[in-house]
Protein: Histidine--tRNA ligase
Organism: Roseovarius mucosus DSM 17069
Amino acid sequence: MAKPKKEPRPKAETPKGFRDYFGAEVTTRAAMLNAIAGVYHRYGFDALESSAVETVEALGKFLPDVDRPNEGVFAWQDEDEKWLALRYDLTAPLARVYAQHRNDLPTPYRRYAMGPVWRNEKPGPGRFRQFYQCDADTVGTASMAADAEICAMLADALEEVGIPRGDYVVRVNNRKVLNGVLEATGVTEPDQQAAVLRTIDKFDKVGESGVRELLGKGRLDASGAYIDGVGLNEDQAAPVLAFLTSKGGSTAETLANLRVAVGASEMGVQGVNELEEIASLLAAQGYGPDRIVIDPSVVRGLGYYTGPVFEAELTFEILDEKGRPRQFGSVAGGGRYDDLVARFTGQQVPAVGVSIGVDRLLAALHAKGKISGAERGPVVVTVMDRDRMADYQAMVGELRQAGIRAEVYLGNPKHFGNQMKYADRRGSPVAIIAGGDEFAKGVVQIKDLILGAQIAENATVEEWKERPSQYEVPRAGLVDKVRDILAEQS
Amino acid sequence: MAKPKKEPRPKAETPKGFRDYFGAEVTTRAAMLNAIAGVYHRYGFDALESSAVETVEALGKFLPDVDRPNEGVFAWQDEDEKWLALRYDLTAPLARVYAQHRNDLPTPYRRYAMGPVWRNEKPGPGRFRQFYQCDADTVGTASMAADAEICAMLADALEEVGIPRGDYVVRVNNRKVLNGVLEATGVTEPDQQAAVLRTIDKFDKVGESGVRELLGKGRLDASGAYIDGVGLNEDQAAPVLAFLTSKGGSTAETLANLRVAVGASEMGVQGVNELEEIASLLAAQGYGPDRIVIDPSVVRGLGYYTGPVFEAELTFEILDEKGRPRQFGSVAGGGRYDDLVARFTGQQVPAVGVSIGVDRLLAALHAKGKISGAERGPVVVTVMDRDRMADYQAMVGELRQAGIRAEVYLGNPKHFGNQMKYADRRGSPVAIIAGGDEFAKGVVQIKDLILGAQIAENATVEEWKERPSQYEVPRAGLVDKVRDILAEQS
């Protein structure tokens, strides 16, 4: 056998745009998703974990360029020349699953899905090519009760993970109302309709006066560039502006304003009726406009969805990178879409769903102090005497039996300082110390590392003497004393 | 713009070898992994979720054929021509992560990881190209306390998920003892050593007499074919047979037998000492040979690992496909391996780990009746009157507030029979029925679907009259009555 060529050492790095998640990053996300899953389950939604790999054919319509199927997704050819790809969201797989299993699934089918998706896009700061999505959808019913249910469930989910009532609002709008408004403008030329839609999308940024200018002659933007307008006259623009600003002091008032905005449009009236039905169904369950509100200024997603559209915003303030207070903003969105399954089966199947931005919501919980970046480390039993390893193992065994996270130091025990440095790096709350003297006396030393660190940083000599952070207790009292210290720390 | 060609409809199917997981399949696995994670966490292990995508370079040495990097793994070329691949286990990523982050990680580094891995292999019945792994490893210590700890943790994890003590045993062997035995045989020629190792691997199948024949002149196998032997004489074969059969009535006896088998081999003696140390550390924590036992007949993985090797076996019986009772068998395995990180850094880093076969353990829990394939469905509030939807929503709202899984029927309510069929398909325990009469009287009908099904199947007319499965209760008593029925059912 020829001697194999010596290969250079591979680089130890994640591919560009990918990252690893450590410790609390994993467990806090899992806990949050678990809490959300509990709410979804209570609403009768079933878990679905679809294959991470799909045929490009099944994802097809979501791909921008069919000649280069790995544009936007990570794709490769199977041994039988079929193109496979990593799912890039959880909606396209739902469409495939529903079409494939529709005879075995209940109708309507309520399902939730949580897991990573992959995007073959240019990574940037905070933009990764693998990230989590968390979706819930109801497939197979056109009933507005399904839309109302998803809004209620979203509100419940936010409260369940720790966003208090008053710190969030779910805003509801309707694409059909917008269509009615378009009819009311009298604009029928598709390109001009599209231009109106694009302008509405800018409402978040440029506000009412900006939209008025952009619908008309045009607008000088902040950079000094002149943006051409759509060219509507004031009468044509009026319904659009009425729509965007129709939110009133009560749901009844908002709905009345919307009825004015859509005028005689049949689709528009239908859209307003749908919003009214959603509001009334929600009111019956006690969800008032303090939690879920009809708000026609929500324009995000209006182009994508076909009926009701919703968005959950967190209304508390955080400081932006320049230290200025601003609202936290959107953490979830969804709506009704009716062309989910048709490309597989030819049949239109109505569906409505919501997607929670997992990383956004985690960031919000961090901002609210609901979760911390570091979890409490284990109690560390230090090794003073290598030959006593069985005794140290017995100690951690007892601690774990009592449900206390604990470990023996398993590095080189020669330098005690390294053991304390290790405990520090682990975020350990307590260290146990027992050498020959302690074993002879039948005791252990228990060091409160949190208190110790506080004292080292702040205390006067007197305090230091009064508040010892190290205790000698009988060996049999080890677990009780550790439990006491942990209880005091938390 | 040219009219786009009409494409044929895509097939709604998972790629070959992939599958979807529904409902209880997802939640029971998640619950099991969550319970295991709790045990691992208590032992001081930190969660790690590495990127699902790695550079082929980082996975490189695990690939059988470097000229065809997508052999065995799913691989593709990135836009900058780099080959990327889906991880095919959780060990190769651990090596990359540890090499990449070693300056920020504690030493030793205890980590657990749970998640899907992907194999580009020929799928078969029950063999999928995406499946879960569940690993725990300690990197950076040669101490046998790490090995003992992992064995104890594995035993705890099995009990935590529902395998009772007595129904499992963790068997421990040591590659170093085997190396010592090889020395004792006097076989030095590498090909002949390899032949001895291959023969030992067959011990599970052919037993002591089979191995004796195969080490010597050869053996007529069950199919009538003659298998050539390794050609050792009886003196040479004796240490191997002594090794494989050295399990005694007590740990002390087993260790004494092993000392005889390894003779003067220094490495063999070291291996026996390691096993002795593990047994003594475990005894100190109360893990006797009823749970973790030194057992030199464990040969699986001996070729791969460099020190202690362990395997968890479930000892209860199940019926095989022909209805014959057999032991459930192995659900986890692991051992010590020391070349994890060296290919990245050039430094040998000692490590020890264990991997639980997620699907195997789930199958075992099913076999023991610890989990069932179906979960209890939601209470279904039926729709007798479309205009009362708000009232029905209020009912499910109250039930959910009380923590009861509940939903309104959102399909077409026209045929009541379809609603009951839906409830049946959902596995619903209870249906709520309220039409005009009920609303007028201020009551609801509550149907116990489980009892109803039992009565329909088994009861006499008398029983049927005595045990009504449908109750009329005041509207205000809805939640209490449902709770009572659910409590009786469980």
User: Anything to note?
Assistant: Chain B touches chain A through 105 residues (CB under 8 Å).
